From TrEMBL, chain A:
<dbReference type="InterPro" id="IPR052375">
    <property type="entry name" value="Complex_I_20kDa-like"/>
</dbReference>
<comment type="similarity">
    <text>Belongs to the complex I 20 kDa subunit family.</text>
</comment>
<dbReference type="InterPro" id="IPR006137">
    <property type="entry name" value="NADH_UbQ_OxRdtase-like_20kDa"/>
</dbReference>
<dbReference type="Pfam" id="PF01058">
    <property type="entry name" value="Oxidored_q6"/>
</dbReference>
<keyword id="KW-0456">Lyase</keyword>
<keyword id="KW-0560">Oxidoreductase</keyword>
<keyword id="KW-0411">Iron-sulfur</keyword>
<dbReference type="GO" id="GO:0046872">
    <property type="term" value="F:metal ion binding"/>
</dbReference>
<protein>
    <submittedName>
        <fullName>Putative Formate hydrogenlyase, small subunit</fullName>
        <ecNumber>1.12.7.2</ecNumber>
    </submittedName>
</protein>
TrEMBL record, chain B:
<feature type="domain" description="NADH:ubiquinone oxidoreductase 30kDa subunit">
    <location>
        <begin position="32"/>
        <end position="152"/>
    </location>
</feature>
<keyword id="KW-0560">Oxidoreductase</keyword>
<protein>
    <submittedName>
        <fullName>Putative Formate hydrogenlyase, large subunit</fullName>
        <ecNumber>1.12.7.2</ecNumber>
    </submittedName>
</protein>
<dbReference type="GO" id="GO:0016829">
    <property type="term" value="F:lyase activity"/>
</dbReference>
<dbReference type="GO" id="GO:0051287">
    <property type="term" value="F:NAD binding"/>
</dbReference>
<dbReference type="Pfam" id="PF00329">
    <property type="entry name" value="Complex1_30kDa"/>
</dbReference>
<dbReference type="Pfam" id="PF00346">
    <property type="entry name" value="Complex1_49kDa"/>
</dbReference>
<feature type="domain" description="NADH-quinone oxidoreductase subunit D">
    <location>
        <begin position="297"/>
        <end position="451"/>
    </location>
</feature>
<keyword id="KW-0175">Coiled coil</keyword>
Length: 173, 530
């Protein structure tokens, strides 16, 4: 018990100890910001991997660690698409995952937004043209936000999520 | 190179009729065997007490258009001396059938199904010929690794359903899980048959992420495919790119400079470090011990930021190139690495003490998901999982690459095969990695970073390289084609070997313990599915 307390006191708070994320490379359209309006205070994400190399998943997982602590911005990760406001899709959409992706999209309740995370999800990246790839994601389901990078750094993902959900009329409503 | 001659002579003496040719490929002895004798020779290699060969890799090559033949190669690791031995056989002309060795060697099961799917060659006598890589909606006759299959062909979609193995009986239920899981992890399907809580049978159905990686390699130049190898399994960017580079260097006769070898060792150990620390945290998290997960997550993040500062990539991408390493580290940077890692080791040791003082946590780890040494041996299990089940294999010691011939790592070995043993292996390897990085700093020689190729490989020349990544043995077979292109690249992530074994480790455990067992294996889906 004392060992745990001592460790916690020694460690202190590490939240926010990361390099600043660069501005998102792809602009976020006004329609996407409008669509994300209901999720400004709280947004629940379901992550769907459609054939990524696992690097994007690791960076999404990093968002939940104490350094990025995405929950402090009201962003939660849900276990089921039924509980989700947003789908974060990674990977170039393989032939074997195509059906599962469409099913997940249907299973997510409206209103919802779709975020394509990483170069593969945005434009199939290095796997473009392969017989086993049918993507990118926006060939199969409508995509609202694109975050490029291979993989995008967690701080960049945070920056996009913040920009998407910022309130322009900060004082009002 | 290790001398495997006695083993070769032993096999030759036993099978004078079956062997048609003896040669060596980059120091690895290769016996060409008549097709029909293959199962008996393989069985002999596997069971002979002096050889105890375990199947490390089985791959096929379509030699068209140069020759109208398919070649099958079987790589055995002889357990006593850790030597390699290759068996090869040919299918000429219109032959499409070869005898299955699966009835004698469990380890060949997935390899032969894979060859059947990707090449359309049929292993006669295989006990389970359901599709593996090609899911049921793929049209009949689509075998993508045949040379006449265009890499960018659009596959149609047909009706079909995979037949899971069923257990019938009163009170037996099936629990389907996946392909999309509850956490942020890769897709795969697990089918549990349960009666009450205990798992009676688990069937793993994978290859949802099949992206056609091996076919994509064949579209690339030998020297330009390093970025693709880094994306086979993103968490093992260094391991995969190093294995690929080593194979090409063997083909080109490149002598990598000692400095580049040391730096490769450093990057490989950094990769091992952040993945192992992440795994320890994730195992604790699956026992609901969030405190250790938070601390490990913090340390893993610290390491990835260190990677980013050193190389500009949190996953250490772009460090390996054919002929050496693409970037250098200054003495100051190395000193900072050592200071940071010394502090981290102290930090991590504190967490270790906290974890092992927690009986409600260790209780969950002990006796959970036991993979016995016998089953591990039968399935040729390797890497962290193997070393937790008494399989004493580590390529860093057995077939030294990079700078491991000088640095000599100590190999962690446990025998109990449960979740605790797999965690123990990781803990030991974390300390060993930090020690090795200190050694690298102490011994780092001066020299150039990239060495030039001596010659361009002849079309048809091939090389086999092996790297002990953080999960286990990564194997690459690279065959040169015309005009500097790749004719064939076989990629083998350790996950491909270890996935079938998890079906055995889960038996008799309760379903809620499966996530914990799965986490303690922590296998790659992307590297398995290719």
């Amino acid at each position: 018990m004392f060992r745990i307390l001592k460790k916690s006191l020694q460690t202190g708070s590490v939240t926010g100890q990361h390099p600043v994320g660069a501005a998102p490379s792809e602009p976020i359209g006004p329609e996407a910001i409008e669509k994300a309006k209901p999720f400004r205070r709280s947004m629940t994400i379901r992550e769907v991997d459609t054939g990524s190399c696992n690097a994007c998943e690791m960076e999404m997982n990093a968002l939940a660690n104490p350094v990025y602590d995405v929950e402090r911005f009201g962003v939660h990760i849900a276990a089921s698409p039924r509980h989700a406001d947003a789908l974060v899709v990674t990977g170039p959409v393989t032939v074997n995952m195509e059906r599962a992706l469409k099913d997940v999209y249907k299973a997510t309740a409206d209103p919802k937004i779709v975020i394509a995370l990483g170069d593969c999800a945005v434009n199939c990246g290095m796997f473009k043209g392969s017989y086993a790839v049918t993507g990118p994601v926006d060939r199969h389901i409508p995509v609202d936000v694109r975050i490029s990078g291979c993989p995008p750094r967690p701080a960049e993902i945070l920056a996009v999520l913040a920009k998407l959900r910022q309130d322009e009329s900060a004082s009002g409503s | 190179m290790i001398d495997a001659r006695p083993a070769v002579e032993q096999v030759q003496a036993a099978f004078t009729q079956a062997i048609t040719e003896v040669c060596a490929v980059h120091g690895v002895p290769m016996l060409r065997v008549k097709k029909q004798d293959l199962p008996t020779v393989a069985h002999f290699l596997h069971t002979n007490p002096g050889l105890r060969g375990s199947l490390s890799l089985l791959w096929a090559v379509d030699h068209r258009p140069r020759e109208a033949r398919y070649e099958l190669c079987y790589l055995f690791t002889l357990a006593e001396r850790k030597d390699w031995l290759l068996l090869a056989t040919d299918l000429h002309g219109d032959e499409r059938e070869f005898p299955s060795i699966t009835p004698h060697l469990h380890a060949a099961k997935w390899y032969e199904r894979e060859i059947r799917d990707l090449f359309g060659l049929v292993p006669i006598g295989h006990p389970d010929l359901r599709r593996l890589v090609r899911h049921e909606h793929w049209p009949k006759g689509s075998h993508p690794l045949k040379r006449d299959f265009p890499w960018d062909r659009v596959l149609g979609r047909v009706q079909g359903e995979y037949a899971f193995r069923k257990i019938h009986g009163e009170g037996v239920f099936e629990v389907p899980v996946g392909p999309i899981h509850a956490g942020i992890i890769e897709p795969g399907h697990f089918r549990f048959s349960v009666a009450g809580e205990p798992i009676m049978q688990l069937e793993v159905r994978h290859f949802w992420k099949h992206r056609g990686v091996e076919k994509l390699f064949e579209q690339q130049q030998l020297t330009e495919a390093v970025p693709l190898s880094e994306r086979v399994s993103g968490d093992t960017s260094v391991g995969h790119s190093l294995a690929y580079c080593q194979a090409v260097e063997m083909l080109q006769g490149v002598e990598v400079s000692p400095r580049a070898r040391y730096l490769r060792t450093l990057f490989l150990e950094l990769e091992r470090l952040h993945n192992h620390i992440g795994d320890v945290g994730a195992i604790c998290n699956d026992t609901a011990y969030a405190l250790a997960h938070a601390h490990c997550g913090r340390m893993k993040e610290q390491l990835m930021q260190l990677n980013d500062r050193l190389t500009g990539s949190r996953f250490l991408r772009g460090v390996n190139c054919v002929g050496g390493v693409a970037l250098d580290l200054s003495g100051l940077q190395l000193a900072q690495v050592e200071v940071e890692l010394n502090a981290l080791e102290q930090d991590f040791s504190d967490i270790e003490k906290i974890v092992f003082a927690n009986a409600s946590l260790t209780e969950r780890l002990e006796n959970t998901g036991i993979l016995t040494e016998g089953i591990a041996w039968d399935h040729a299990v390797i890497g962290v999982v193997g070393r937790a089940s008494g399989i004493d294999r580590d390529l860093r010691r057995d077939r030294p690459f990079a700078a491991y011939d000088v640095l000599q790592p100590r190999v962690a070995l446990y025998r109990y095969g449960d979740v605790r043993a797999r965690m123990r292996v990781r803990l030991d390897e974390i300390h060993e990695s930090i020690r090795l990085i200190r050694e690298v700093r102490r011994g780092l020689p001066l020299g150039r970073l990239v060495s030039r190729p001596m010659h361009q490989p002849q079309p048809g020349a091939w090389a086999l390289s092996a790297v002990e990544g953080w999960r286990g043995e990564i194997l690459y077979v690279v065959m040169a084609g015309d005009a500097g292109r790749i004719h064939r690249c076989k990629v083998r992530d350790p996950s491909f070997v270890n996935w079938p074994a998890i079906q055995w480790a889960a038996l008799g455990n309760i379903v809620p313990d499966f996530p914990l067992i799965n986490k303690s294996f922590n296998l790659s889906y992307a590297g398995n599915d290719l």
